[in-house]
Amino acid sequence: MTATAVFIAAAMIVMALGLAMTLAWRVWFQTRNASWIDVAWTIAVGAAGFVAAFVPLGAEPRRGVLIAAAVAAWTVRLAPHLIARTRVHSDDPRYHAQIRHWGAGAPVRMFGVCMVRALWGVPLVLAVRLAAHNATDPLGLRDAIGTALVFAGIVGAALADRQLHHFREHSGGAVCERGLWRYSRHPNYFFEFLGWCAYPVFAIQIGAPWGWLALAAPLTMYLLLVHVSGIPPVEKHMLRTRGDAYEGYIARTSAFMPLPGRAPPPGR
Asked: Residue 162 — pLDDT band, cuts 50, 70, 90?
């Protein structure tokens, strides 16, 4: 892709995600359930990525179809999971305390949150575009590695979410330390990040400098999940509601990357 093509693609992505997150803010304003923001963001990023990959097909159309299928699979897996969770919970605890603190200014602040989320989505969709339109060589080993990363990310995140859901149905509010949750406090976030590591693999090549911009996708996802809207607010909520049990879990278990840790207490 040329510099002009990258700039035009980025501008169109900004406009598309900005419109989508404006609609997400409207849904929040009517329902006061901030969980719908995550649902809308996932669908918006997935839909924009699918269009960016698939239309128009590049000189190597099979790669465009492969990338479109990858981002569609991510969306189809994650969006229904978030929708089901949103229907069960009346609001997202990550946002609840903040909205109460904002008081009458919450609508304006939440609109700003939605616009920031739109901007966070731009590097992700642009990476999909760069990956799909890397057409200087035919499908090969890089595409196989990228596909494996997408598959591992989707399956790993789905397994982690399923394990946590099953545990919560029978736990009575305890801290989950079973399955993948024995090795990471947030394995679902780790596998989400892993899946987005695929797009630089698809996009980067010698002599094509714009492909390196795809590295912004896993970096963006890492920052979001580990430092912004993922681990920090979730752990703050868990410490407030689970107390000493979660503090012990923190002491035993890696925060993000699955690693062997100290044995959990008996019965876990």
From this structure: very high
Closest CA to 252 of 159, 184, 160: 184
Domain boundaries, position 56: 3-252
* pLDDT tens track for 194-222: 999 999 999 998 767 788 999 999 999 99
Instruction: Examine residue 225 and state whether it is found in any structural domain, yes or no.
Output: yes
Q: Exposed, middle or buried by CB within 10 Å (0-12, 13-18, 19+), for 135?
A: middle
Judged against a pLDDT cut of 90, whether residue 173 lies above it is answered with: no
Record the tokens describing residue 35, joined without a space: 């969980």
Would you say residue 83 lies in a domain? yes
pLDDT confidence tier of residue 191, bands split at 50, 70 and 90: very high
Residue 20 lies in a domain: yes
Gap between the Cα atoms of 164 and 176, Å rounded: 7
DSSP for 135-185 reads -SS-S-HHHHHHHHHHHHHHHHHHHHHHHHHHHHHHHSS----SGGGGT-S
Distance of alpha carbon 201 from alpha carbon 142, whole angstroms:
6
Distance of CA 134 to the CA centre of its chain: 23
Residue 267 lies in a domain: no
Q: What is the pTM of this model?
A: 0.92
Domain count, the chain: 1
